[in-house]
Amino acid sequence: MEWSLENVREMVAGGMQSIRECEICAFAIAMCVLLLFMWYCYRVGREHGSSPLRGRYLAGPGRIGGVVGGFMSSDCRGRGKGKHGSMLEEQNGFAFCQSAECFRCTSAGESLNQRLYHSLQDYAKRYTWSGMGRVHKGVRDQGRYLNSRPTIQRPEVFFLPDLPSAPFFSREVQRHDVELLEQSFPALLAEFESIYHQPARGGSSLPPGWKANNTPRGQWWTYYLVNQGTPLVLNVRRCPRAWRVLGQLRTFIANNVFGNACFSVLTPGALITEHYGPTNVRLRCHLGLRVPPSCELVVGGEPQCWSEGSCLLFDDSFLHRAFHEGGAEDGPRVVFMVDLWHPNVAAAERQALDYIFTPGRLEDKEGK
User: Fold this and answer.
1) How far apart are CA 355 and CA 135, in angstroms?
2) Which residues contact 291 (CB under 8 A, 6 or more apart)?
3) Could you tell me the CA-to-CA distances from 109 to 90, 112, 326 in Å, in that order?
4) Which of 157, 170, 176 is nearest to 283 (CA)?
5) Left (φ > 0), alpha (ψ -120 to 50) or beta: where does 6 sit?
6) Beta strands 220-227 and 311-314: pairing type?
7) In sequence order, what are the beta bridge partners of 340?
8) pLDDT for 255-286, tens place per residue?
9) What H or E segment, with its residue span, contains residue 288?
10) pTM, whole model, 2 decimals?
């Protein structure tokens, strides 16, 4: 080959053309990858919107998010009634109706473990196994985890392994949501006053929407906006400002059965006996609305007192109890309670747990 200026010019021109073709090919590949990523985000976004409560509140009478009435499809009150009246047994605020269709009332065992694993497999086939190490480990060995936990912390339904645990958490772990709730203190207090002082109807001793829970002494009343992942339509309509606050929270558990939001009232002399929550993947947040003296929350043997306008974060999978030892002149203790994600549960794990514990999913699988 003769080296001449013309040959060098031709070689350089050919090289430049090859580079241009490679750039076009690389650009086309990058565009294809970008389009695939946008399609994936669209698919995920349809089921998991940026706001947990988006699309849940429909205008139709008696319906929210496709659920009729106040509770989810396994409504304890409705399914616990027969010709002999109510068959419910209430304990520590949860209605144990002994119905196989109720998630909370179904005891954890081999049947639940199998349904959990099938749901996890369904999720992995539809999305991915990536980031599912702890969830898979927890589902696979759930029976062992629940039975071998120390008595101080023993969640009743689901335990996610390798999560940092403590009875109480600093407000900094969910700073955004804590500050939002505390800034909303006046609005939430005003809304509580409006629903608490409504006249009772239909022979009930409580105003509409309130639920009386069984306690050894005193009274414990709750007014749920979200119960086990399902909004309560009539209660939500009476509390529009509280509902807006819930929609602005970043870590509120709104899409699975471990999520609740309610006003909680303890009358003077009331005691909530020691009990465990269903899981360690959440932190329970109490915003103090009315806090008279001699009220206390004990979690894992550590006592704490509420404060008006301030949030208290705790892991309710630890053994816990609450009491109000004040007199009648002190009035009730009132908190606004919401369930937030544990800060060490990753986004991929939250999405998987939302899928596995969607209200009604595990119950439907049992009937198949």
Assistant:
1) 12
2) 305, 306, 307, 308, 333, 334, 335
3) 22, 5, 41
4) 170
5) alpha
6) unpaired
7) 252, 283
8) 999 999 999 999 999 999 999 999 999 999 99
9) strand 282-290
10) 0.74
